[in-house]
């Protein structure tokens, strides 16, 4: 699957006591137009996982090429008790409180649709309730073969 090129998203949610959580994810897809559904596959080991079961909203910020450090930060290994501090990056609050990264190439706010048990991951399906109009990122960050790239020249 490392050969499947894809965008890099930051999944954000508030934990049950209102603390910010964010995880770098590439297992993300659009699913349905009517209703508008997207999915993210989240490891059951991840610190963000359990928050998805209680949150009333979560967001996906599709990272831009100048947000590589943010991708590294949200993919770091977190020991129990570790907290996220996203203050170095420009953000705003989604309608349900989680962070949206305004430097992203695109972002969507979701309300939970369903959670599907899938081996060592859970597939979180969300209904898109808002598409960000205020993001400033230009080129989407691409991940393939365990490396990051920026989109190259169009080929025809
Ligand atoms: C480029 C990239 C893509 C990733 N995609 C996913 C993903 O789709 N789903 C997931 O659960 N974890 C994904 N991860 C792993 C998490 O971001 C994170 O590294 C891992 O869960 C460890 O964090 P934890 O200590 O909070 O569990 C990805 C990591 C990187 C670097």
From TrEMBL:
Pfam families assigned to the protein according to its UniProt record, in alphabetical order: Flavin_Reduct
Coiled coil: none
InterPro entries: Flavin_Rdtase-like_dom, NADH-dep_flavin_reductase, Split_barrel_FMN-bd
Signal sequence residues: none
Cross-referenced Gene3D superfamilies: Electron Transport, Fmn-binding Protein, Chain A (2.30.110.10)
Protein keywords: Oxidoreductase
Residue span, Flavin reductase like domain: 1-150
Protein name: Flavin reductase
Gene source species: Jiangella ureilytica
